[in-house]
User: Fold this.
Amino acid sequence: MPDRIRLDGRVAVVTGAAGVIGTATIRLLAERGARIVAVDRREDDLKAAISDLPASAEALAVTADVTREDEVAEYVRASVDRFGTIDAFYNNAGVEGDIKPIPQYSLESFRRVLDVNVVGVFLGMKHVLPVMLKQNKGSIINTASIAGLVGSPMIAVYSASKHAVIGLTKSAAWECTGTGVRVNCVCPGLIDSRMLSTILQGRNPGNEPPPTEKIVDRIPARRLGQASEVASIVAFLASDEASYVSGSAYTVDGGRTAA
Assistant:
């Protein structure tokens, strides 16, 4: 059966492109024919991510900090200057912040997490939406988390930021009523990644984190998720196969939040 989720010739902008989910996503989108604008503040890691794309892929790397409005405006401008448009925007950059209970959390760290995870998402939509609304088409996919759906100890600030992303997503979808622009988000669960390792270690300071078997006991799928599985949902939401999907929060969590 032919692959129906093709993105041939479309322009996809991905922030946080040097992270594990971002890298998996730009690879899959490129394999499905998209032209890629990869955005990250870590220049060396960004170059490495781009070098791993298929040889035939058209790609532009832009080093930018998503919390700085001038740099967000610049990656949007660079995308349009190079490719003429933006068809899909994966608003993915994020940080987990400190792994601490609320009384021990500094205001500086609190603001840093919200700056990246909420302000960064807001600024991305603020500057990409005019491009998409002008052409009356486009798909925005924000990265939230299952931590944006339920509470979670020691990562209250991260959880709050991801609840905010879901709220931004749903409100933006309503603002695009009557247009061809769709706005959705993905909510990854326990994905095999550096971020998950950091959270588990932070919850067990001075000790070894719990073995994988103990962690996956609480996941109906009985395993950790893979970045490629998140990327697959992003590719679907970016495609015409999701033409009637907007304002949704897609969980990619092996059933973790089903109960």
Observations:
- The chain has one domain: 11-191+225-251.
- The chain has a mean pLDDT of 94.
